[in-house]
Design goal:
alpha/beta, Rossmann fold, 10-stranded mixed sheet, 8 helices, 10 strands
Length: about 290
């Protein structure tokens, strides 16, 4: 059975082409096929939700979609993935990619795309997939990862939750594949109470990292304990990283919580790509 693909979307925007480049490099790095989708968004054209648009309008959208896919496929080929599969989907972009996440190994999207508003916030498609995707998801942010001499570390956070083991394993695998160091951060308090024995809590954090983070021998690992706000610390460290790896929910998560506050903050503010590891249930497919 062939490995499940890395899936990305191409809408013609610069952000989506960044996602295609990142996804192609990841597919080559991990030995997976690449699938590139373009959503035609036909449901948005139904007048009153019922009356279909003229056929020549649909033909024009299909032609534009094929051009966007050709450009993306050529770009993927330049990254070492000449056999990327392309697909036109009549559905909306978010729905198309969420459906693909049922069998994909990884979804990769740009931070924003067509219809985006000015500013640093993640676009609606990235936010929807980050919240509702069924497999691990990368939102491509920043541009340092695309520099020829990019050698920043992979950064992850650990909070002591059981789901953190999967996040750590993913972060280790990414650091190993990229041949870069891994920084494992434990930021032990959002708002530390003044009366808290900070030294004792910091020592507990160090014991947690020593117990959870293995010495692999092939990945340089830095264990960092800081009495700081986890979201702020991760955002600051993302400026010099090539990838931040997070769980979609942390220790405070519960079944009804679709996306943790730290994950949301990084999706909107990180200076590098963010990999969200799905922590509810087993991975989608090998």
């Amino acid at each position: 059975m062939s490995p499940s693909p890395i899936v990305t979307g191409a809408d013609g925007s610069a952000e989506s082409l960044d996602a295609v480049r990142w996804a192609a490099r990841a597919a080559r790095l991990h030995g997976r096929p690449l699938e590139i989708r373009h959503a035609l968004d036909f449901p948005a054209l139904l007048a009153g939700g019922e009356v279909p648009p003229p056929e020549d309008m649909l033909d024009a959208l299909r032609a534009r979609g094929h051009r966007a896919l050709r450009t993306a496929q050529e770009l993927a080929g330049a990254q070492g993935m000449p056999d990327a599969v392309t697909r036109l989907d009549p559905d909306r972009a978010a729905q198309s990619l969420i459906e693909a996440s049922r069998t994909a190994a990884l979804l990769v999207v740009g931070a924003s795309g067509r219809g985006r508003c000015a500013g640093p916030l993640a676009g609606s498609v990235a936010a929807a997939i980050g919240t509702h995707g069924r497999c691990d998801t990368v939102v491509v942010r920043g541009d340092r990862w695309d520099e020829p001499d990019a050698d920043g570390p992979v950064v992850t956070g650990i909070d002591g939750s059981d789901t953190g083991r999967r996040v750590l394993a993913t972060a280790l695998a990414e650091a190993r594949a990229r041949e870069v160091p891994l920084v494992v951060l434990h930021a032990w308090a959002d708002e530390p109470p003044a009366e808290l024995d900070r030294q004792a809590v910091a020592e507990a954090g160090r014991r947690l990292l020593d117990a959870r983070v293995p010495d692999t021998g092939d990945v340089e690992v830095a264990r960092v304990v800081v009495p700081a706000h986890p979201r702020r610390e991760l955002v600051e460290r993302s400026a010099a990283a090539q990838l931040v790896v997070l769980g979609d929910r942390g220790r405070g998560g519960f079944p009804g919580l679709l996306l943790g506050s730290t994950a949301q903050a990084l999706l909107h503010n990180a200076g590098c790509p963010v990999l969200l590891v799905r922590t509810a249930g087993p991975p989608v497919r090998p």
